[in-house]
């Protein structure tokens, strides 16, 4: 089984995923927009919404794909309103195997974000830091340091 992360944004998926692509590298394995959907009765999109992302996938390693979409009220369950930052208790935890990579990921992903815990050595023997990125996604970097 593979466990992937599916994120929701409100019109900023493309910007977020171009940012994540600049950090993780790789290419989008799938990208479709709302404007590409077949016409359905009662479903209309503004010109801006037609350009929003319906689904995007970015493989970040051999085992993990980061996926997302822009939320659209026409496809949400009743009373389920998108509110950025309501994922207070959910974070994406990255566990790089090398300190240099941990420092790079922390520095690049936290640009214009909010630092919750600076990247530093911990009592459990890891280099750890936490932050919310500029798109409202919470991340943790946890790099287990090898004993000298």
From TrEMBL:
Residues 3-141 form the Glyoxalase/fosfomycin resistance/dioxygenase domain. CDD domains: PhnB_like. This is VOC family protein. The lineage of its organism: Bacteria, Pseudomonadati, Pseudomonadota, Gammaproteobacteria, Moraxellales. It comes from Acinetobacter wuhouensis. Gene3D superfamilies: 2,3-Dihydroxybiphenyl 1,2-Dioxygenase, domain 1. It comes from the Bacteria.
């Amino acid at each position: 089984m593979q466990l992937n992360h599916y994120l929701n944004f409100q019109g900023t998926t493309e910007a977020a995923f171009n940012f994540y692509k600049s950090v993780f590298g790789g290419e989008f394995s799938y990208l479709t927009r709302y404007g590409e959907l077949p016409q359905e009765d009662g479903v209309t999109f503004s010109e801006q919404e037609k350009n929003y992302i319906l689904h995007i996938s970015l493989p970040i390693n051999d085992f993990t794909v980061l996926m997302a979409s822009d939320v659209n009220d026409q496809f949400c369950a009743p009373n389920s309103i998108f509110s950025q930052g309501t994922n207070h208790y959910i974070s994406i935890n990255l566990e790089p195997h090398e300190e240099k990579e941990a420092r790079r990921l922390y520095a690049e992903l936290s640009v214009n974000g909010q630092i919750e815990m600076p990247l530093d050595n911990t009592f459990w023997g890891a280099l750890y830091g936490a932050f919310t990125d500029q798109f409202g996604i919470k991340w943790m970097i946890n790099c287990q340091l090898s004993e000298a």
